[in-house]
Amino acid sequence: MAVRILLVDDHPVVRQGLRTLLEGRPQLEVVGEASDGVEALEKVNSLQPDVVVLDVTMPRMNGIEACRLIQQKTPGREVLFVTQHDSPQMMREALAAGARGYVVKSNLARDLVEAVEAVSQHREFTALARKPHAR
Amino acid sequence: MKLRILLADDHEIVRRGLCALLQKREGWEVCGEASDGRQAIEMAKQLKPDVVILDIGMPFLNGLDATRQLLQYDPHFKIIVLTITDADQVIREALDAGARGFVLKSDAARDLVSAVEALQSRRMFFTPRVNDLVLRGFLDKGHAISRNEPPDLPILTAREREVTQLLAEGKSSKEVASLLNLSTKTVETHRSNIMRKLSLHSIRDLVVYAIKNNIIQIQMPPQPSAPTESTVA
Q1: Are residues B17 and B120 in the same domain?
Q2: pTM over 0.95
Q3: Nearest by CB to A14, which of B17, B220, B222?
Q4: Of A14, A33, A56, B162, whose CA is between 20 and 30 Å from B71?
Q5: Does residue B185 belong to any structural domain of this protein?
């Protein structure tokens, strides 16, 4: 059975990009999209996805808070963070909130499919960028 | 003939999304992808695309300065800038730099195709807020766009702005020299000219200047969410 995935990011372009990376894999199915934490909770409730791909920075409710609430209210879902925060501290916070995976956006083309598959099998997957980027 | 588009954004996932949007259109082709402003300039010179789409917040050289440099090289380039903010100052700079399109990243799914179409038929495309700003400036008597602060940007040359960005990104004079193919001594001369022109006294001041003037953009850590229990079903 295919892994059912919910994509959560406030930028439609990024959701489109995530979709492009995941589509064409028969074992993965994107079942829905949400653009902030509040909408994510509603969609998790109605769609019961296996994996929630979550951005950290979003309007209304950020991803960390959404992750906490997802684990509280509808346990059994795995959360994978996909974020531009290349920070060990943010990663620890995400895992503490109940996430199973944390991938930075710069490495997505390489890591996304593998990360989704790993967390769907309840294995931890984390990947920060190799070189810190002074911005 | 195909319409050839060059795409520059430092996030691969965003490029994927933009490519998917643009290539849905028959006859459009993304002929190249760049991940920073310097690479974008190189590729634009080489590929001569019909339309160039530049993200503003890119490493090494931001999209606004890349716009300026490209149009200086060849004023016929048609450039759309992509931005995460439509703050007045950023809009002004984009217009001053010569961009013909200004699209908010959050609206790209809706606006980017329209923007490319507009440029293709020699029109311009701006997000609605830009039109408001331009109109307001026009109504403010004659001035194209009203300015609240003194325009402190043109003081620096294109090269000095490039050096400013690289220093503000935390690179040493030696690293900047090797990136720009200059001697370390030349970079240090640029650096002291920049500091003198802007009356800055430390690299810290320079970083603040670079952020204030959109030469670099910083990521803000997420704000804690307001309590939302009541809004959740």
Answers
A1: yes
A2: no
A3: B17
A4: A14
A5: yes
pLDDT digits (tens, 9 = 90+) for B87-145: 778 888 888 899 999 999 888 888 999 999 999 998 889 887 777 777 776 666 444 44
> What are the distances in angstroms from CA B90 to CA A55, B76, B207, B219?
26, 22, 18, 17
| Residues of chain A neighbouring B232 (CB-CB closer than 8 A) | 38, 41-42, 69, 73
Distances (CA, A) of A99 to A30, A65, B95, B220: 19, 11, 43, 21
Give the residue from chain A lying closest to B224, CA to CA: A62
Other CB atoms within a 10 A radius of the CB of residue B109 amount to 18
The reply to whether B108 and B204 lie within a common domain is no
**A19 to chain B: which residues are within 8 Å by CB?**
20
Same domain, B129 and B194: no
pLDDT in tens, B52-102: 999 999 999 999 999 999 999 999 999 999 998 887 788 888 888 999 999
Query: What is chain B's mean pLDDT, rounded?
Result: 85
Chain A CA closest to residue B14: A14
> Looking at CA atoms only, how far is residue A135 from chain B in angstroms?
5
Identify the residue with better confidence: B80 or A85. B80
Number of domains forming the structure of chain B: 2
User: What residues 9-28 of chain A have any CB closer than 8 A to a CB of chain B?
Assistant: 10-21
- Residue B35: CATH number of its domain: 3.40.50.2300
B37 falls within a domain? yes
Alpha-carbon dihedral sign for residues B130, B169, B72, B36: negative
| Residue range of the domain that includes B119 | 3-139
Indicate yes or no: CB of B20 within 8 angstroms of CB of A19.
yes
Q: Say yes or no: A84 contacts chain B, CB-CB below 8 A.
A: yes
Domain boundary among B86, B108, B139: B139
Cβ neighbours for A24, distance < 8 A, ≥ 6 positions apart: none
**B199 in the same domain as B121:** no
Write the pLDDT tens digit of every residue in B27-61.
Answer: 999 999 999 999 999 999 999 999 999 999 999 99
The whole-number pLDDT of residue B221 equals 58
